[in-house]
Amino acid sequence: MINASVTALRRALDAREISAVELATLFLDRIDSANPGLNAFITVDREGALAAARAADARIAAGTAGPLTGIPIAHKDVFCTEGVLTSCGSKMLANFVSPYDAHVVSLLKEAGTVMLGKTNMDEFAMGSSNENSHYGPARNPWDATRVPGGSSGGSAVAVAARLAPIATGTDTGGSVRQPAALTGVTGIKPTYGVCSRYGMVAYASSLDQAGAFGASAADCAALLTAMAGFDPRDSTSLERPREDYTRDLDHPLAGLRIGLPKEFFGPGMADDVRAAIEAVLAEYRKLGATTVDVSLPNARLAIPAYYVIAPAEASSNLSRFDGVRYGHRAAEYGDLADMYGKSRAQGFGAEVKRRILVGTYVLSHGYYDAYYLKAQKLRRLIAQDFQAAFARCDVIAGPTSPTTAWAIGEKSDDPVQMYLSDIYTIAVNLAGLPGLSHPAGFGAGGLPVGLQLIGDYFAEGRLLNAAHRYQQATDWHTRRPA
Amino acid sequence: MSRTDWEVVIGLEVHAQLNTASKIFSGASTAFGAEPNRQASAVDIALPGVLPVLNRGAVERAIRFGLAIGAHVAPRSVFARKNYFYPDLPKGYQISQFELPVVQGGAITITVGEGDKAYETMVNLTRAHLEEDAGKSLHDDFHGMSGIDLNRAGTPLLEIVSEPDMRSSAEAVAYARTLHALVRWIAICDGNMQEGSFRCDANVSVRRPGGPLGTRREIKNLNSFRFLQQAIDYEVQWQIATLEDGGSIQQATVLFDPDTGETRMMRSKEDAHDYRYFPDPDLLPLVISPEWIARVQGEMPELPGAMKARFVAELGLSAYDATTLTASKEIAAYYQAVIDAASVALAKPCANWVMGDLAARLNKAELDIADSPVSPAQLAGLVRRIADNTISNNIGKKVFEALWNGEGGAGADAADRIIEAQGLKQVTDSGAIEAIVDEVLAANQKSVEEFRAGKEKAFNALVGQVMKASRGKANPAQVNDILRARLGG
Q1: Which of B368, B400, B422 is the last residue of a domain?
Q2: Is residue A103 in some structural domain?
Q3: Asn/Gln amidotransferase domain: from which residue to which, for each copy (chain B) (predicted)?
């Protein structure tokens, strides 16, 4: 059961081979034993999970169960969950119990999922390794001395180590896809606006998008179907009919044109990653797809553009954490400015402070045009590059991350090296496109490699279909860490 | 050099609270006076993860304003974040509009002064933009701590920015009053200045006539026209005195203290915030379609300027009368209803009654014209009876007082009922008037002699006696004619 797919769990629940309460207990017990070593969860809500499981069993008994009723799930701690700590991996919110549910959380509650707990993450989703968590780093189940990637590291670890069958995450510059790649699971970030951001603690509003983790593309499709949908409370949420992302999973790949951007295959990619990616592409060709060379000439500008826009938005988004109404307030302070200064100095970690400072700087009078406006121009150029590429191909493929998981502490002192680990994922957020990472075999030391598929706007179904057909023909996604 | 060598330059920024039922970015109520923080939603208190959703009612009011002042209503405008820390600013930024405001340009014609000295001038507007209000910090009653009330946080405001087109405190006040009447006229703001629904900031500088603009100081948060006038007057004399003493003006924000009548420095330019404006990524650009503008245009009431012009052109009123009668929507509506019930031919006497006896009586009773006990139809009935000589103007005043006291009932025929009941109908029967005249002449031989000796005043005294003897009901013109004939004059 621990390794079963969502489809298999659905069958087992409906056939009464296992109850939702038993299934939840199975995963909760696994969390109890494995989480101390992996640190995937910040909060485990056994009581809440069992209550939700009992409700799910009632629905199953009443014959009103949906595809996810009774399926255990973990939520990244960036999503507000009513009555449950929502810390965002920060000391600043280490005492914040949300009075309301995020839209994504309420949709998944309505679907009957059973929330096991809240997963570890880089503080305020700022990071690529999960080392920037107030609660300590989550660890990669393939090698506990290594990072799981970030910022949604806890959710990726939970799914990879089978502490939860599925999990939610958020992806601002690669925070779903990169940890999925580094932990050997499948993760998808949909088109910007497909999932509501309401109740998702904002990092960089114009880039943040909720995403799904699962062992397979099929599991991700089931989860994304339930969590996507228009929400009038989010002005950037897109008013479109709800979609069933599982519908076209089995569509044959014959004729699929896969674009290979030369910029994603240049120097900088580790040899073991390159070998794994080439092998996956060969398999795709075997399945009937063709590959075509494309170019994204401005993709190299994605990281500098991102590290202007994201900190700029973050510097403003995080202003509300001032110790006045909720969150951390310094125990002792003098005047108002001192209260702000001490509360924020104590409540935020180093990387969050760095990005607030960078963001404040680039928005300052006299620098705004040179940084923020210039970055927005680059953003448009990058989006145009993708549109030009999609004239020649249906999906774009390449590595998700230039390397496999690195050792905890290896890049902690070098923010730029850390930022470069998102070199293939960031452009996708800047353009607002959907992206998926699926297991692509293993590199040196038996560490997972991920392949990234990028689609045109609203091509989530196409990406999931391609990954699913690949997973039907291969078994990388079924491998589990020891 | 003397004070006459200086020219005053004033521009105003007015924050008009838009009268939407809910806030500009949340569904919380905007009603005034609730218990602290009872009208603050998750969005208003800026919980983690919440997002703003624009209230289209606020946009619609901005469009109305743009159309009313002949401005460009931007087909695409942008909400921006104005970043600064303050405890009553929950998000750490205010959502406002910066580079691309919803209303651009436009102008307002104002009438300054009264009577012969009155003149008209035009004040150009720079822009008007939508933004949210902050909450309130409460510094009393918390034993050394401050309280925060976020009920007002997120209340929609239209910030209306004028060009520095005003040259005196009188012009500034006339502009503020005209603007105040306009926002109420087009029903976008209740104009309640005590509750802060209409707040003025004045940018004031002085310069040598024709010279370059002087350095300005901004007087913040003036919530009455009287304070606006006093604050500007004080500021102007302070700036002139400072300059004439060889000093210089530093750009600053100042506050007006109504108790001392003085302005004092709040912060200097050096202390000014860098607000780090940038487009709010949580809100899409505000797109206003031509169809939306056309629909709002179709729902616009006749504006004061157009109404005033119509009163002059079609009713033959003087510019002064027309200005007075369009000073507020309520006065204009009342007057329009009076002439609708009387007749266009009686426009001038109707105007006199509305601006004269009615205004004085309302003023005495401290009543708004909308609450007048004398309805427009009743006043029209009175004016008609004077016009058709049923009663004289003097008796009319008596009838008006009776109308005010509700004596004729609630109907439109109240004046007729009063005239009938009190027997006030004018005497026009020549025989009856002649009889009274003869009695009066017989009893006032002294006056008759004085008149014959050339004292014209004595004639007026005789007229008065006749009117008195008729208890005011004799037709004054007839009395005149008969008296002259009798006296052989």
Answers
A1: B422
A2: yes
A3: 333-487
For residues B261 and B359, state if they share a domain: no
Candidate from A99, A235, A320 with C-beta closest to B284: A235
Assign residue A64 the CATH number of its domain: 3.90.1300.10
CA A76 – CA B49 distance, rounded (Å): 13
> Does A320 sit within 8 Å of B48, measured CB to CB?
yes
Number of domains present in the structure of chain A: 1
Q: Which of B22, B24, B47, B56 to mutate to test the interface with A (most CBs of A within 10 A)?
A: B47
B274 and B321 assigned to the same domain: no
Give the domain-ending residue among B386, B405, B422: B422
Amino acid sitting at position B306: A
Name B61's Cβ contacts closer than 8 Å, sequence gap at least 6.
B18, B19, B20, B156, B158, B188, B189
Tell me: do B234 and B175 sit in the same domain. yes
Low-confidence stretches of chain B (pLDDT beneath 50): 1
Rounded to the nearest integer, the mean pLDDT of chain B is 93
CA distance B392 to A55: 87
Residue A288 belongs to some domain of the structure:
no
Contact A316 B83 (CB under 8 A): yes
From chain A, pick out residues whose CB is under 8 angstroms from the CB of B276.
315-316, 360, 363-365, 368
- For B119, phi then psi, to 5°, come to -140, 155
A128 in B contact zone (CB under 8 Å): no
Same domain for B91 and B240, yes or no, is yes
ipTM of the predicted structure? 0.96
Q: How far is CA B65 from CA A358, B60, B222, in A?
A: 40, 9, 22
Nearest CA in chain B to A310: B281
Residues A5, A98, A133, A151: which is the catalytic one?
Answer: A151
- Write the pLDDT tens digit of every residue in B255-277: 999 999 999 998 887 777 899 99
Task: With CB atoms and an 8 Å threshold, state whether A233 touches B87.
Answer: no
What per-residue confidence (pLDDT) applies to B4? 64
Residue B340 tokens, joined: 């609708």
Q: Determine which one of A19, A87, A175, A343 is catalytic.
A: A175
Q: Which of A233, A315, A320 sits opposite B90 (nearest CB)?
A: A320
Q: Do B47 and A324 touch (CB under 8 A)?
A: no
DSSP SS3 for A163: coil
Comparing CA positions, the residue from A462, A455, A400 lying closest to residue A191 is: A455
Query: Is the bond leading into A151 cis (omega within 30 degrees of zero)?
Result: yes
Residues B388 and B449 in one domain: no
Q: Identify the DSSP state of B32.
A: T
CB nearest B282 (choices: A79, A205, A325): A205
Selecting among A76, A118, A189, A411, the annotated active-site residue is A76
CATH number for the domain harbouring residue B483: 1.10.10.410
Same domain, B263 and B311: no
Q: Is A79 in a helix, a strand, or coil? A: strand
Cα(A23)–Cα(B186) distance, integer angstroms: 63
Domain count, chain B: 3
* Structural domain range at position A39: 6-232+435-478
- Each residue's pLDDT tens digit, A390-423: 999 999 999 999 999 999 999 988 888 888 889 9
Are B52 and B165 found together in one domain? yes
Q: Which residues of A touch B83 (CB under 8 A)?
A: 315-316, 319, 363
Active site residue A237: no
Q: What is the mean pLDDT of each run of 10 residues along chain A (482 residues)?
A: 96 98 98 98 98 98 97 98 98 98 98 98 98 98 98 98 98 98 98 98 98 98 98 97 97 97 94 98 98 96 97 98 96 95 98 98 94 97 98 98 96 87 96 98 98 98 98 97 90
CB atoms within 10 A of CB A99: 11
| Domain span at B393 | 302-422
User: B24, B276, B284: which to substitute to probe chain A, counting the most A Cβ within 10 Å?
Assistant: B276
Is B280 in the same domain as B158? yes
Q: What is the pLDDT of residue B1?
A: 44
The reply to whether A216 belongs to the active site is no
- Which helix (DSSP H) or strand (DSSP E) does residue B14 occupy? strand B7-17
pLDDT at B334: 97
Tell me the chain A residues in contact with residue B47 when contact means C-beta distances shorter than 8 Å: 80, 98-100, 326
Q: Could you tell me if residue A394 is inside a domain?
A: no
